[in-house]
Amino acid sequence: MSISLRDQLLKAGLVNEKQAKQAGKEKQKQQRLAHKGQIELDDTQQRLAAEAKAEKVKRDQELNRQQQEKVEQKARAAQIKQLIEVSRLPKLNTEDYYNFVDDKKVKRLSVNTLMRNKLANGSLAIVQHQGGYEVIPREAALKIQERDPRRIVQLNILVESKTPEEDDPYAAYQIPDDLMW
Q1: 63 and 57 in contact (C-beta within 8 Å)?
Q2: What is the mean pLDDT of residues 54-78?
């Protein structure tokens, strides 16, 4: 069983019985006057404690928000990784390359003619994945772009296949398929 502070001070000899009784009477008098409204109690300790508690709650909320943000970032990264791994096209080993710019550097990717045309007209996109580049369909690239636009290296504007107009004066002059720019 714990002993009150008053009893501990008496036992240690720091105060005598008369001083302890006088302190108790003074405390009761202060409480009576405060209860009647004649005197205001010194509530600085209570106010400081309340401010400290409010500050601690605010700090805890900020930490919780930061932790939640980190969890959401990890979830987005996992979703992006899954989208890329599920929808990526197989790597090709051809002598035909598609050149693109990433971070002011020209990179190249091995492609075939169909992939080159689809990359050019926006049906396919190039994304960064695990230190390399992957080719994925446009729909997956748009989903990735919602989560992290920095991962998209190249996503051209979707262009539907052009059919020559009837009044086009150059309709008879088609661009040859083997012409490389």
Answers
A1: no
A2: 94
Q: What is the pLDDT of residue 69?
A: 95
Query: For 113, phi and psi rounded to 5 degrees?
Result: -65, -40
Tell whether the torsion through CA atoms of 140, 146, 149 and 151 is positive or negative. negative
- Is 60 exceeded by the pLDDT of residue 1? no
Quote the CA–CA distance of 90 and 16 in Å, as a whole number.
91
Query: Exposed (0-12), middle (13-18) or buried (19+): which is 126, by Cβ within 10 Å?
Result: buried
Mean pLDDT of the chain: 84
Q: Give helix 17-36 / helix 5-12 axis angle, nearest 10°.
A: 160
Given this model, what pLDDT does residue 100 score? 86
C-alpha 121/C-alpha 139 separation (Å) is: 14
List, in order, residues 6 or more apart from 168 with CB less than 8 Å away.
none
- E strand or H helix at 24: helix 17-36
Look up residue 60 and give its DSSP letter.
H
